[in-house]
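Agenda item 2: zinc ion complex prediction
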Amino acid sequence: MLVTNKEVLSVASAGGYAVGAFNINNMEILQAIIETAKEEKSPIIVSASPSAVKYAGLDYLVAMVKAAAKTNPDIPMTLHLDHGKDIETAQMCINGGFTSVMIDGSHLDFEGNIAMTKHVVEIARSKGVSVEAELGKLVSQEATAQGAEDPYTDPDNAKEFVDRTGVDSLAVAIGTSHGAYKFKGDVKLDFDRLKDIRRKVNVPLVLHGASGVPSWIVEKATKYGAELSGAKGIPDKHIKCAISLGIAKINIDTDLRLAFTGSVREVLVTSPKVYDPRKILGPAKENMKRVVQEKMRLFGSSGKAV
Ligand code: G3H
Ligand code: 13P
Ligand code: ZN
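Presented output:
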């Protein structure tokens, strides 16, 4: 069943768990996340970035997700634009059949971010589409230059931002970042800030850059030739803490990418005679399913599709 982020996240917030938002670029990734959602009886957010939309084609993506929704009426799923950077992209996805959009104005100043987000909220409301926005910058604490402006989400600004834009959920910056190299040294997230934001803001909160870069994936990929030295993600205990402090949507892309390519490497290295794409991409799908299952259990969304 295709629903909005607002619907799944309000239930998750009230229930004290988080829903995984998994990035897709192709059919195998979509199948991996939907099959696992079905097996785990979990709600799921299907995320597509602007570059995923460009790569796969808007109509193909929407048609695939509609097919997934039709064949899985018991699983609440959403089709969500991840990191839409401008009004045109958000508008295109709203018109094209997405049920949720992120308008990411974190590259703009406060007033610019508010103006763009407000505009998208107005467009989205008329179509029943929900909107996520972002305030603050997704950088690790060690990457922030000493004495430079605070890159993280200011709790008072977050309240003002949500009140003035009417946005349905807010992505916060507390020290997570995108990709496989999140920290050079110790893992540091600003949980005090998250607590303060939660106290002041009454919409569901979103954690981007949340991949764990688990060692089983890195070891497999490395065994078959990947170069990933220094890769480090967000440990499971930090994810649990973030959920306990009010995070209701957790974005995962990197772990799927690592699982996908690690498995492709394995087949190509161990079975040099294989040239049937299904024999290469099929195991990649299975490897991604393991990732999604682990996340759904960690986030507490397993068994919540009722
Ligand atoms: O936020 C970034 C996501 O991992 C999507 O990345 O723009 O390469 O599709 P992408
Ligand atoms: P990761 O790179 O940690 O998987 O984060 C993905 C993300 O935030 C997508 O918006
Ligand atoms: Zn992100």
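Discussion summary: Residues 23, 49, 51-52, 82-83, 178, 253 surround glyceraldehyde-3-phosphate (ligand 1) (CB under 6 Å).
Owner for follow-up: CH.
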